[in-house]
Amino acid sequence: MRNSMEEGDTERGTGLPGYNDVNDPFKLRDALMTDEQMAAIKANSRRKRIPLGKSPRAALHAHKLRGFYRQQNEKIERWLKPVHEHVQDARDEQGSDALQYRIAVGASLIANILLAVIQLYAAIGAGSLSLFATAADAVCDPLSNLTLLLCHRAVNRVDPRKYPSGKARIETAGNITFGFVMACISVILITVSSIQLLQNEGRNELKPLKLTPIIVVGVAFLTKFSLFIYCFALRNKYSQVRILWLDHRNDMLINGFGLTTAILGSRIAWWIDPAGAIAISILIAGIWIRTCYSEFQLLIGQSADTAFLQHVTYISMTHSPLITQLDTVRAWHSGPRLIVEVDVVVDKVRTVEETHDVAEDLQRKLESLPDVERCYVHVDYETSHAPEHFWKKEL
Where is this region: Disordered (predicted)? Predict the structure, then answer.
């Protein structure tokens, strides 16, 4: 019975098969909205709009309604898809994207090293604080790439006897470390720029900006834009690539703004250049502080999103007829991956062998999901008891 859903889906072609009471006990298939029904929603809203003129309210309502049903269809199809197909899809995706991942990280590393050298040279030659801010950001980029590569290698080489769980948190810790370094460098640049503003107050000396720094920063902008586009498709599959994607996005903003303030500082007013450096540094610090905060949430065990909890609940409910109720379903982050805890209820007349087999099969099924690092399944025979785990407030 454990594999009833998988066996019912072996003949899957394009789309979902015809589900019955065994592999779709809650008849979720009946709730799927067809394309014709979606079109009818739009047509009905258009007819209702005719006597009211061209009011956008009805169109907005219909758009939201269609979006709701599209999300519902995706959720139902995700629930009804057997776990082994989720696993196979993830493996196929990882295998097909492995080369793209290496290209994204390798190309970013090579580009960042070259851009760091030429941007630092351009900033020194121009003497512009705005360009120094962009160069400082560029110099730190190779460090970020090196951090990501070392973290990825460390995850693959962790001794499971020494660290039996949580090795994926190495990536999160590396991301936090890099973000902290970037924030510290931004504070240093803010200090230097503020000192120059105070020392040169009252002066109005314009320092001309040569063409070479402008070309260098322009090349850096175009390079970052190309890498930003390439990493966009992989940003939700690898946490390392997502950090690179965010870095390329931020670098485009920084290089564009830095070049603008450097040119204005050489043509209009000298103070625009250090003021631009301060603005860039504040932007860099704010972006990476926000990134560190998000990574900290994953590190300290932020709860999984509602859609994932619903998926785990459905898998557990339909796993076996021996499971009569669910007491608790929890899932929380351990770095980029998730720890799952499920409390199931079985009849107290069942043997230890039966309950053990059901719990172990469910544990293996949930642990095979792509985002799950570890799963714990606890078996009980009633739900009226106090929680097994209490909130420990004092050590």
Answer: 1-22
How do residues 278-327 score in pLDDT, each as one tens digit?
A: 988 888 888 888 888 988 999 888 999 998 999 899 889 888 889 999 98
| DSSP characters over 47-80 | HHHSTT-S-HHHHHHHHHHHHHHHHHHHHHHHHH
How far is residue 81's CA from residue 15's CA, in Å, rounded to a whole number?
Answer: 10
Q: Beta strands 337-346 and 323-334: pairing type?
A: antiparallel
DSSP code at position 303: B
Dump pLDDT digits (tens) for 175-226: 888 888 888 888 888 888 888 888 876 566 777 778 888 888 888 889 989 9
So where are the chain's domains? 4-8+16-81, 98-299, 306-380
Torsion angle, alpha carbons of 17, 94, 180, 278, to 10? -80
The highest-level CATH class for domain 306-380 is alpha beta
Rounded to the nearest 10°, the torsion over CA 287, 293, 294, 297 is: 180
Secondary structure (DSSP) of 358-372: HHHHHHHHHHTSTTE
Query: Which ranges constitute the DSSP H helices of 127-238?
Result: 129-157, 169-199, 211-232
Going by their DSSP bridges, the two strands 372-380 and 323-334 should be labelled as unpaired
Which CATH code, of 1.20.1510.10, 1.20.1280.290, 3.40.50.12710, 1.20.120.1810, is assigned to 98-299? Answer: 1.20.1510.10
